[in-house]
Amino acid sequence: MNTTSPVTVRRVAPADAQACVEPLAEVLLDCVEGGASVSFMWPLPRDKALAFWRGVADGVARGERVLLVAEDAAGRIVGTVQLITAQPDNQPHRADVAKMLVHRSARRRGVAQQLMAAADDAARGAGKTVLVLDTVTGGDAERLYQRAGWQRVGEIPHYALMPDGPLCSTTYFYKHL
What we know:
Oligomer: single chain
CATH superfamily: Gcn5-related N-acetyltransferase (GNAT)
Shape: globular
Largest sheet: 7 strands, mixed
Radius of gyration: 15 Å
Helix content: 25-40%
Order of helices and strands: EHHEEEHEHEE
Number of helices: 4
Number of domains: 1
Low-confidence stretches: none
Strand order of the largest sheet: 1-2-3-4-5-7-6
């Protein structure tokens, strides 16, 4: 991948979400293979990655999620993030940020920052004023979120497994828009 090529972020329309399943599965597979603790273990079967993204596409079609993708100059999806907007009745102002993923070939180019800024904008557009997320404690994403104005809430030790098996802690963040 050309590291100088521009990356654009766009919101995936409900009618287009299923068409993104294959390339999003590639991003997920790459991230999990690279050690990202994002709910999956390695090796991650391709059919499991595809099933996950089909479920996300169904959620987009039902209006429960906002799916954002980052594309390189060739139109290849190199990153993604979601807003889970379907919340309990007493939390209509809140959304969860989920599965912020950037393909290893596109990292260190500001893709994650662009995705998170687009997530903020999409949340505002949906009338959300509080965002919540969690991430592996001490990882690159934790530093990204702090730089983007997220507030650290706390850490839960031994919360999940890394893709290759060891336990890892998780840090929770929130952001008021």
